[in-house]
């Protein structure tokens, strides 16, 4: 059996290695247009920032490793230009010489990835405008940064003394992973960074109130955000620097511009081969990663996958799914019945020592699809036992089915151990866990690592309390509908007040119940919702109608106060 794999990075390389492990006899050809195979895209922003100083560190395995260890016929600088499904052949072009050859296959795997979106904006090809997608891209960025800019326009043509000045201003366009990671790395390299984002928040997959927290954090660390503004074009200024022009009419001067406008599945070959393209613009595959042609498989960023929670077709450009899909395609080619379960979009981004991570569905997606059978909670547990040094709060939002408690999604932010909470929740979600399962999860605990009630348990307990009716909750958008009771200490109110709330500290509540109305619903607030929970329990047992305002003051204003917690 001869298998040709197009694309030698995450999906393609993992498919080639797995296939060889399963089938010693298969002839495996892996073609890659670029100069490298199996390189770490994900490390590229950190090479820009010199956190990964050596380019060589980005190469996970080189072509020779694939040749010697896996007996894979690796061809770099080799582009697949045409598929003839009837003849089962692929045309391959040698990028250096232009020579075209035709290669026959029994099975073909497409893992061409998703190139960056590059709209035809005026001036987009000016020098100093880069993408962060490939190793040559980052090499060019590093050279540009290190070389300094010409002080006067035209000086590059002048053969005598030239004045160079350091580059100091960067404009990053796009507030997704790549834009934010690169923005952080440019800050580390001493740049004054402005990030322009067309949407009203950064990190589009998460909910806006959670994004607000990260926005506050990155701004505190020196990234200036320009939200709700799209880029309209670029101009070269008289002194040789760039001006980034936006749709709102603003102009941002820049010595370097990074385009990070998102990615689009590469379907060129697939379309030529008549393969089915889905409604989201990716190659349509079944759960075995098979296209509508039984001998052609497609994997990675180029394909549409089923959203694990909503069942909708979606595009998920992440290395984890690409690697798993490569493995599944190899399994199926080798005769096994492996299936892709769909993607939860489990993601994490590190920014200035903090992390934001999420899995599953967001509230805004549920709203978009008109799904009302959900509830959400906010909680702010410590990353480990508060008495052990170094504990940091984690802001968590957990979304679950109102009808049966099934976990639907979770988002978390903080400076310590955010990843392990979202990883645990991601696994729970994939196994179809409910919030009642989270209550019972037995997780690692010693004071430096967690708490006897880990944030994951804690989330389950809070959510289960809500569903069992032990702790009715409401949210800030309904805060005007009840009698607001603030159970914090008066000292705390001096820092931040909830307008219109009556203050009875939790310790005095039992003796001051006579001050509270019996004919109105009482909405209870504290800083994070924890004391309000105890107060709500007191009130409910004393015959009042009461609800906890989920997440307390932190969920109302967490952008400004969370990181001070
Ligand atoms: C800067 C950056 C940071 C990232 N960070 C993360 C992260 O932290 N976490 C995460 O989960 N994901 C991250 N990703 C995304 C992750 O890298 C991708 O999801 C993953 O690489 C997709 O694998 P793939 O095989 O589908 O495509 P790719 O890895 O893009 O590989 C496709 C390959 O196919 C080659 N190719 C395309 N067409 C042809 C052709 N016709 N002939 C021959 N070769 C062809 C391309 O040259 C390319 O090398 C990041 C991506 C980038 C760019």
In short:
The protein is built from 15 helices and 30 strands. By secondary structure, it is an alpha/beta fold. The radius of gyration is 27 Å and the shape is globular.
Q: Overview of this structure, please?
A:
- It is a single chain.
- By secondary structure, this protein is of the alpha/beta class.
- 27% of the residues lie in helices and 24% in strands.
- The relative contact order is 0.09.
- Flavin-adenine dinucleotide binds at residues 6-12, 31-34, 41-42, 44-45, 79-80, 111-113, 132-133, 177-178, 266, 269, 300-302, 317-320, 322.
Question: Characteristics of this structure?
Answer:
15 helices; 30 strands; alpha/beta; binds flavin-adenine dinucleotide; 24% strand; 565 residues; five-stranded parallel sheet; globular
Q: Strand order, biggest sheet?
A: 3-2-1-7-18
Largest sheet: 5 strands, parallel
- Average pLDDT figure: 94
For the record, give the distance between the C-alpha atoms at the N and C termini, rounded to a whole number. 60 Å
Rg calc: 27 Å
What order do the helices and strands come in, and which of them pair?
Elements: E1 2-6, H1 10-22, E2 27-32, H2 44-48, H3 63-70, E3 73-76, E4 78-84, E5 89-94, E6 100-104, E7 107-110, E8 129-131, H4 135-147, E9 149-150, E10 164-165, E11 169-173, H5 177-188, E12 192-196, H6 208-220, E13 223-226, E14 231-236, E15 242-246, E16 251-254, E17 256-259, H7 268-272, E18 296-298, E19 305-306, E20 313-314, H8 319-333, E21 347-351, E22 354-360, H9 363-368, E23 374-379, E24 394-401, E25 407-414, H10 418-430, H11 435-440, H12 455-468, E26 473-474, E27 483-486, H13 490-495, E28 502-503, E29 522-525, H14 530-541, E30 546-549, H15 552-561
Parallel strand pairs: 1-2, 1-7, 2-3, 7-18, 8-17, 11-12, 11-17, 12-13, 26-30, 27-28, 27-29, 29-30
Antiparallel strand pairs: 4-5, 5-6, 9-10, 14-15, 15-16, 19-20, 21-22, 22-25, 23-24, 24-25
Helix pairs in contact: 1-8, 6-15
């Amino acid at each position: 059996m001869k298998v040709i794999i197009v694309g030698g990075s995450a999906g393609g390389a993992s498919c080639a290695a797995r296939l060889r492990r399963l089938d010693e006899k298969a002839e495996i050809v892996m073609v890659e247009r670029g100069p490298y195979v199996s390189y770490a895209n994900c490390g590229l922003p950190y090479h820009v920032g010199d956190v990964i100083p050596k380019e060589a560190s980005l190469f996970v395995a080189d072509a020779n490793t694939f040749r010697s260890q896996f007996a894979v016929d690796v061809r770099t600088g080799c582009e697949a230009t045409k598929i003839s499904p009837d003849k089962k052949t692929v045309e391959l072009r040698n990028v250096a010489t232009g020579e075209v050859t035709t290669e026959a296959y029994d099975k073909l795997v497409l893992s061409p990835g998703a190139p960056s979106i590059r709209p035809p904006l005026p001036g987009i090809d000016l020098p100093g405008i880069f993408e962060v997608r490939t190793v040559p891209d980052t090499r060019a960025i590093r050279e540009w940064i290190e070389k300094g800019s010409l002080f006067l326009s035209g000086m590059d043509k002048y053969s005598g003394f030239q004045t160079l000045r350091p580059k100091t201003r960067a404009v990053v366009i796009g507030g997704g992973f790549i834009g934010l990671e690169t923005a952080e790395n440019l800050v580390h390299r001493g740049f004054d960074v402005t990030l322009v984002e067309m949407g009203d928040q950064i990190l589009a997959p998460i909910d806006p109130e959670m994004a607000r927290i990260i926005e506050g954090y990155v701004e505190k660390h020196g990234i200036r955000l320009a939200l709700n503004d799209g880029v309209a074009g670029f101009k070269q200024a008289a002194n040789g620097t760039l001006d980034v022009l936006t749709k709102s009419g603003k102009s941002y001067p820049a010595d370097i511009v990074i385009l990070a406008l998102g990615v689009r599945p590469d379907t060129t070959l697939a379309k030529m081969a008549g393969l089915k393209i889905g409604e989201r613009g990716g190659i349509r595959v079944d759960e075995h990663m098979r296209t509508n042609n039984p001998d052609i498989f497609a994997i990675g960023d180029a394909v549409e996958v089923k959203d694990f929670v909503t069942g909708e077709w979606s595009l998920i450009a992440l290395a984890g799914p690409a690697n798993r899909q490569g493995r599944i395609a190899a399994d199926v080619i080798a005769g096994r019945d492996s299936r892709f379960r769909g993607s939860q979009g489990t993601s994490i981004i590190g920014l200035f020592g903090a992390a934001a991570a999420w899995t599953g569905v967001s509230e805004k997606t549920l709203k978009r699809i008109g799904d009302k059978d959900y509830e959400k909670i906010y909680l702010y547990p410590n990353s480990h036992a508060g008495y052990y040094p170094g504990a940091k709060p984690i802001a968590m939002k957990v979304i679950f089915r109102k009808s049966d408690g099934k976990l639907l999604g979770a988002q978390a932010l903080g400076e310590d151990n955010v990843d392990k909470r979202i990883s645990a929740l991601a696994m729970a979600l994939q196994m179809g866990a409910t919030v009642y399962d989270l209550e019972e999860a037995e997780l690692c605990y010693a004071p430096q690592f967690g708490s006897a009630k880990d944030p994951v348990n804690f989330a389950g307990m809070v959510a289960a309390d809500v569903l069992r009716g032990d702790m009715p909750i409401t949210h800030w958008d309904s805060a005007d509908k009840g009698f607001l009771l603030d159970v914090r200490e008066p000292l705390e109110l001096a820092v931040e007040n909830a307008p219109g709330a009556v203050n009875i500290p939790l310790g005095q509540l039992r003796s001051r119940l006579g001050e509270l109305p019996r004919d109105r619903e009482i909405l209870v607030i504290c800083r994070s919702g924890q004391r309000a929970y105890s107060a709500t329990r007191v009130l409910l047992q004393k015959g009042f109608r009461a609800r906890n305002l989920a997440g307390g003051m932190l969920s109302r204003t967490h952008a400004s106060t969370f990181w001070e917690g």
